Amino acid sequence: MKLLIIEDNEDLLQNIRTYLKREGYICEYARDYKQAFDKVMSYTYDVVLIDIMIPGGSGLQVLRELKSVNPQTGTIIISAKNALDEKVKGLELGADDYITKPFQLPELHARIKAVNRRNQRDGREIINVNEIAINTDTMEVTVNDTPVDLTPKEYDLILYFASNKNHVLSKQTIAEHLWGDYVDHLTNLDFVYQHIKNLRKKLEQAGARNYIESVYGIGYKFKVTNHA
């Protein structure tokens, strides 16, 4: 899962990043309005954490801009104890949840998982693609009830494919989902092919059909038809 953390308090930002990266998330960050605006207009995220008070502008304006281009993105407002009006405005603008400072990181993590399930998975913890089952809470994948041992990147990839089944995804889009804006520093996207090759092999060895199709010159499609 790819997150964007918009927070100007350096200690809090680093604490959140360290904790969530340890939980297996890709964590990008922005410390002010301009950085945040550039990020949400250039990249897509599963969940964005937005501090209301940021240098150079308002987190609420970032939220407004984000929802105008990617309304499906999960959003959580980070607010001070006395910021009731801002919380209400944020929820009216489409924020999915809010958390008040100070907070415990496990609580923030739980809220992130809940928002992601609710917004992008229709509230489901289990995503079924015929014989494949993806548990978005435990991050486990099974084929006909047989566990499949995937790396974190392979799990992110199968979840991304399952959430965008029958859509053509470019190599660039897949790379950005797996690595965030770090992909801008890469000289090529060969690693995308390698991750897909490994994922396809593991799924087929567990008894799954080959759903991942190459689309020449563009990328890949997770082609799914229902089977009785």
UniProtKB/TrEMBL annotation:
GO terms for cellular component: cytosol; protein-DNA complex. The keyword DNA-binding applies. Keywords: DNA-binding, Phosphoprotein, Transcription, Transcription regulation, Two-component regulatory system. The keyword Translocase does not apply. It comes from the Bacteria. Residues 124-224 bind DNA. SUPFAM superfamilies: CheY-like. Residues 2-116 form the Response regulatory domain. The modification 4-aspartylphosphate is found at residue 51. CDD domains: trans_reg_C (cd00383). Residues 124-224 form the OmpR/PhoB-type domain. InterPro entries: CheY-like_superfamily, OmpR/PhoB-type_DNA-bd, Sig_transdc_resp-reg_receiver, WalR-like, WH-like_DNA-bd_sf. One of its GO terms (biological process) is regulation of DNA-templated transcription. PROSITE patterns: OMPR_PHOB (PS51755), RESPONSE_REGULATORY (PS50110). GO terms for molecular function: phosphorelay response regulator activity; transcription cis-regulatory region binding. PANTHER family: REGULATOR OF RPOS. This is DNA-binding response regulator, OmpR family, contains REC and winged-helix (WHTH) domain. It comes from Fodinibius sediminis.
